[in-house]
Specification:
The protein has about 270 residues and is of the alpha/beta class. It contains eight helices and eight strands; from the N terminus they run E-H-E-E-H-E-E-H-E-E-H-E-H-H-H-H. The strands form two sheets. A six-stranded mixed β-sheet has the order 1-5-4-6-2-8. The structure holds zinc ion (2 copies).
Length: about 270
Amino acid sequence: MKLITRADLGWPASAAPSQLTAKGVKVHYEGTHVSPALLDDHDLCIKEWKAIRAAHLANKKEGYSDVAYNYAACPHGFLLEGRGLRRRTGANGNQPLNIAHYAIVGLVGSEGLTEPTDAMLSAIRDGIDLLRKHGAGSEIKGHRDGYATTCPGTLLYDWVKKGAPRPSGQDGQDDTDPPPAGGGTTYEPPAFPTGLRPNSKSPSARGLQKVMKKLGFLAASVPYADNYGPQTQEAVARFHNKYTQFRALGIKHDTAIGPRGWAFAHTKAYGGK
Ligand SMILES: [Zn+2]
Ligand SMILES: [Zn+2]
C-alpha cells in the first residue's frame, strides 16, 4: 500500500465527526471532467486532491468540515488520505447514508480520464482493506446504491458489483505467490513493514538500505539510518528501473518500495536464487 497521509499533504487533523464503525465502504468518482494529464504526472494527482478538498471547504451549502471522502485513489496506485479512519464521510448523499458507509473516491470522472487504471483499483482495494481493519464491515457498494446519482460511473460500478477484486499483478495480500510445493527450507521474506515510505523515519528503512546495498543499488559507504531519505529513495528508484514490474504505473522515478518489490528484493538478496 502506498499511503499519502494528511501530514504528507500538509493538512491538519480532520474536523469531521467520528464514526467508529460502518456497514462497509462506498466507491465514488469525481463525476466531472478529469484531466488525462494526471496519468503522466503524479504531482497533478496531489493538486487534484487538494483542489477537491478546497472546493468542499468552500461549499457553504453543504457546510463540509473537511474533504468529504475518507480516501482517494490516484491512477498511480497511491491511496490519498482524506478524513481517514473512523471518521464519518460527507459524500454519500445524506446523513443516514454517511453513517452507514465510509467513502473512497477514484480520481476518474465522467469525461477526460474516465478509465481507472489497475493501480487505481488496487489502491481503492487497499483503502477498503484498511477501513475494514478499523471498523468497516464487509459491504462494498457504489454511491448510486440507495441514492439517485450516476456515481461512481459505469466502469467503477461494474468493478464494485464484482466485489471490487484486486487486479492481478498489483501489490496486495491476496496475490502473493503460493508457497512452493514440497517440504524443505524455503526462504520467507520478512513482512512488508508498515510506515516504510519515502521521507519518513522507520527502523525498517535500515533493512531496506541493507537489501539495496546487497543488490548493488546503494553504495556500501552510505551509513544506515532510520530515515528513508534521498539516497535510499534514489536506490529504490534504480531498483524499480531495473525491475519495472514493481514500479508504479506511469511513474518513471518511483522511490517508494511496495510489498511485492520488498519481497522480491529480499528473496533475491537472501533467498539463494
Ligand atoms: Zn459519489
Ligand atoms: Zn498519482
